[in-house]
Amino acid sequence: MLRHEFFLHNPYSSYIPTFLLLKITSKPKYYVLIYLKSLLILTNQLNQGYVMSGASSADLSVVLKQLSEECREECDVDQIAAALPEDLLEESDLTVSLEDEGEGGEVENLLIHGYKSEIKWSLKDYRPPRYTYVRYRVPSMIREEVLQSNRVRRVISMLCKETGRSKDQLDKEATDILEEMGHEFSMTILRFLGGLIRKVFKQIITDVTVHTEGIKELRRLSSQKPLLLIPTHRSYLDFILVTWLLYSYDIKTPVIAAGQDFMFMKGVGMLLRRCGAYFIRRSFGKDKLYWALFTEYTQTHIINGDAPVEFFIEGTRSRTGKSLQPKFGMLTIALEPFFDARVSDVAICPITLSYEKTVEENLHVREMMGIPKPKESTTGLIKARAILDNNYGRIHVKAGQIISVYEAAVGKVDRKLRAVVPRAIIPSVHPHERTFVNELAYRILLEQQANAVVFPCSVLAAVLLLHIKKKVWSLDLCKAESELMWACDLLIKMGCNLVWDRKQSCMDHVIRMLSPVVYCEEGHVIVHKTPPTAVYLSSSVFKQCNSLISLGRRRNEFMHSLIHVAMLAKILFHPKSKERTLEQYQRLRDIMQYEFVFMPDSAPADFDKATKQLINLDLVKLTDNVYKFVDMEVKDFLVSLIDPFLITYMDSWQFCISYMPRTLQHSQSLKNLCKRIQTYISVLYCEPYLYGESINLNVIENSILVLAKLSLVSLDKGKTQVFCVDPFLFSNTIREFALTIHPMTSKL
Questions:
Q1: At a CB cut-off of 8 Å and minimum separation 6, what does 403 contact?
Q2: How confident is the model over 429-440, as pLDDT tens digits?
């Protein structure tokens, strides 16, 4: 957690305008100078002798922007300190403390990194380290080498025999696909767009905090190994931020695997292509030629080291605020050159992007209720210019621990098995390689989650949802602040990376980050039952759920840190033996396997870790091998985090028991089934008792996927058609699940 503290006392007012530094308690020096100059201005505004405590970078953002260019000038801090009178240093009339209480090391604000002028920043001397074995190639050369690669030539020859098409026809099709897919990287366009985006970000973002330790390590390795950059995916801004970050720190900007949706945006698609994006179809099934071209195009950048390759392990944006289950296809393709020994090692860098408020939040809420996502278009982008009038708070960027694939594969992957396969044959992925890729994908996701930052607005959302469950939609401001501080303290004890300072009253900012769903009026924090963003909905139930889903999405941003203890809190509604608790924990974990990311086969280890954490915090007592939850206030808070999912699952399964098709001949589409369940639940409850998750199609679909995983229902290969396998077994199993969750919810 970052904490900024300032203590100002000025007995030597005559020295302050002359000297900038009196004592530095930590680095980075650049930030110290900025803060000092900002405080000097504030001192002049607030009179000499004024004492200020608890100010943060957000409070000084305006002053920081005005002073960034001046503070950028070279300045020897130690020399300034040495020039001050000794008695002045001893008195310490100005002390600045900038500390990082986590493992992040030094931090910088990307908005004021480098030049103040966007033009100077765009035209800066950019000399990133190059991969040692790189061979310079322009985009047209890359496409030609892909076209002439052994894999592509072999697939074309095979398709000639299978389809009867001529080699020239297939060559032309392959050329057209590569022209459609490939990037046309241009440093000039990248510099121009970078300056423009930096200007926009300064208007809509308070600050972009970067943990520089991981970035420095990434820069060091960029000349030694091919790089895979795998950021979290919560917003359209993700790939923009990563490219901007690498350019700012003189690291080779990546080529980015992007969906074809962006390619059809007039003008925008071309600009993205010039910035390193290569476009792939959302699905290409059994198209062997496309598979070969896409695989070879991705791998040639890794083998030659032209640029880092960036893609999202989750496959698509997470609308729910939680991490999605990993997709293994792209990672398998990226690691195949390592399995083939065409590269000695690959470095994987998980990058966590934490947003205080995403620009697409309202769009995500609509999609979760089943309203189709508008098609990406340049016209839609122009219409969205209203976002420039809003402020979206802070963004935290952290490059996680870089994973060496060579080291991770020791004892798990035997590359000799591929060595005996002739190069002319396209090898298939061995089972042990697939297992390794799956484990690595989960490791990457969990590393991303471990580095995620939690903002107070997400915690306030959880507090408000706890009161809404009690039919309270308005909360006294002082009570809301008190409960927020209590919840933040709890999350810090639980190990969350929370941006929080108890000394600073930040309720105005926190509430602003939850608007328009939450607002403050006459000393009360009020949740809109029908916020302005819900005008497109006709049903009053759906309008109310607009607020609930929005708050639930914010709460989900820290659920990964508390899910294990929340499940234990739910299970321990009365004392249980250790063996019984573990058994029910594993069962509940099976139920929640699509909602949250769990490392496979790690249930006992996760259980031990969670129980030890609760015992160490004196929340749970272990007596005579029996667990008992002793802090009811914490227990109620933790249970409120997981209850909305479990109640929605129960209601969904209740519908399935009564209405699920019994045979394949009478099956229905998964999409239509989820819509029917959504309608059923919205009618089932009166408004005050409805959870936001109750009509969230993502949660409803996950409840059906769990049944399929447990072989209680059957899905076709494309996960489009669903029917019940054994109604009797289905009903009995669901009742067992209900008893695991809580006797009060076993109404089935």
A1: 347, 348, 349, 350, 440, 443, 444, 447
A2: 888 999 999 999
Q: Look at residue 718 in the predicted model and tell me its pLDDT.
A: 65
Q: Which of 722, 726, 706 is nearest to 714 (CA)?
A: 722
501, 502, 534: which is closest to 517 by C-alpha? 534
First to last CA, the chain: 45
| CA separation for the pair 615, 633 (Å, rounded) | 16
Q: How far apart are CA 525 and CA 480, in angstroms?
A: 7
The full 3-state SS of 3-48, as one line of letters, equals EEEEEECCCCCCCCCCCCCCCECCCCHHHHHHHHHHHHHHHHHHCC
Average pLDDT score, the chain: 80
φ and ψ at 267, to 5 degrees? 80, -50
Distance from C-alpha of 623 to C-alpha of 209, rounded to nearest angstrom = 45
β-strands 255-259, 277-280: how paired?
Answer: parallel
Q: Which contacts qualify for 621-626: CB closer than 8 Å, 24 or more apart?
A: 622/578, 625/577, 625/578, 626/575, 626/576, 626/577, 626/578
CATH 3.40.1130.10 occupies which residues in the chain?
139-450
Give residue 70's pLDDT: 45
- The pLDDT tens digits of the residues spanning 566-580 come to 999 999 988 899 999
Distance (Å, whole) CA 423 – CA 436: 23
pLDDT at residue 14 above 60? no
CA distance 210 to 399: 9
Residue 453 structure tokens: 């930052």
The token duo for 66 is 């005005």
Residue with token string 């058609």:
721
Residue 256 parent element (H or E): strand 255-259
Please determine, for residue 62, whether its predicted confidence score (pLDDT) is greater than 90: no
Cross-strand partners of 554? none
∠ Cα 374 379 383 (to 5°): 85
Residue 517 burial (CB count, 10 A): 25
Using a 10 angstrom Cβ sphere, with 0-12 exposed, 13-18 middle and 19 or more buried, the burial of residue 477 is middle
In CATH, which of 1.10.580.10, 3.90.1150.10, 3.40.50.150, 3.40.1130.10 is domain 139-450?
3.40.1130.10
Q: Is 707 left (phi over 0), alpha (psi -120 to 50) or beta?
A: alpha
- Give the full edge-to-edge strand order of the sheet including 576-577: 576-577, 626-629, 620-623
Per-residue pLDDT, 665? 56
- Tell me how far apart the alpha carbons of residues 597 and 592 are, in angstroms, rounded to a whole number: 9
In this predicted structure, the answer to whether residue 58 has a pLDDT above a threshold of 80 is: no
d(CA 507, CA 491): 18
Q: CA–CA separation, 78 vs 208, rounded Å?
A: 28
**Contact yes or no for 521/417 (Cβ under 8 A):** no
**pTM of the predicted model, to two decimals?**
0.82
| DSSP secondary structure code for residue 474 in this structure | E
pLDDT in tens, 679-713: 888 877 655 456 788 888 999 999 989 988 888 88
Per-residue model confidence (pLDDT) at position 325: 94
Which tokens in the block code for residue 699?
A: 């949660």
Low-confidence winner among 36-45, 48-57, 474-483, 546-555 (lowest mean pLDDT): 48-57
Q: Which residues are 5's β-sheet partners?
A: 97
Cβ-contact 185, 275 below 8 angstroms: yes
Assess contact for 670 and 704: CB atoms under 8 A: yes
Give the integer Cα–Cα distance in Å for 421 and 423. 6
Sheet strands (E) in 430-553? 474-476, 518-521, 524-527
CA torsion angle 263 266 272 275 (round to 10): 130
The Cα–Cα gap between 451 and 398 comes to 7
- Exposure of 574 by Cβ count < 10 A (0-12 exposed, 13-18 middle, 19+ buried)? exposed
CB burial of residue 675 (10 Å; 0-12, 13-18, 19+): middle
CA-closest candidate to residue 525, choices 546, 505, 508, 538: 508
